User: Fold Shikimate kinase from Hippea maritima.
Amino acid sequence: MGRMNVSLIGMPSSGKSSIGVILAKMMRFNFIDTDIIIQNNTKRTLQQIVDSKGYLKLRQIEEETILSLNPEHSIISTGGSVVYSKKAMEYLKNVSLVVYIKVSFEEIKKRLGDYSLRGLAKPKDQTIAEMYKERTALYERYADIIFENHFKNATIAAEKLKELIDENI
Ligand SMILES: Nc1ncnc2c1ncn2[C@@H]1O[C@H](COP(=O)(O)OP(=O)(O)O)[C@@H](O)[C@H]1O
Ligand SMILES: O=C(O)C1=C[C@@H](OP(=O)(O)O)[C@@H](O)[C@H](O)C1
Ligand SMILES: [Mg+2]
Assistant:
């Protein structure tokens, strides 16, 4: 790894954003949330992009955003759909340690609740169960390490993840 960065990948609501910002403070790293960059660049919410341009366009914007990051000393919280881009994932693997934040299907389903306004980059007719199955294979494919997040809250999870990262860098 050329520059020291950590990328967090995983299902929507697995904790990438909540854990990422806490981890960045604990490790004195920069914090990047690609969803926020996309919103700033497009001046649209993720839901608005999906509604007006479709979920494939959101995935394309996400890919372009990742490829333009050039991160240094950063924790990068990605959007859950980033693994659909081979290019983006190869880029992240080159510039960072890629951590898959793994959360059980039951917990993800519970956290997502009514996800109709969450701007998920998935076909309308794809169920959460189908999405979980399809994506799990991709998260596992690209992960350098897997972090099983069965912790009570994001702060505890960030402390545990820091230990795992320290062992792996
Ligand atoms: N152990 C945990 N780790 C991270 N988040 C947790 C945990 N337990 C509950 N949560 C809650 O789950 C949600 C995770 O959302 P978020 O961080 O936005 O995920 P993502 O960025 O992966 O979509 C937050 O509401 C957070 O408070
Ligand atoms: O998994 C997805 O399809 C998406 C997850 C979101 O980010 P989080 O994973 O941070 O919720 C955001 O990028 C967009 O709404 C699409
Ligand atoms: Mg997030």
User: Anything to note?
Assistant: The mean pLDDT is 96. The radius of gyration is 15 Å. The longest strand covers residues 97-102. The beta strands are 5-9, 30-33, 74-77, 97-102, 145-148.
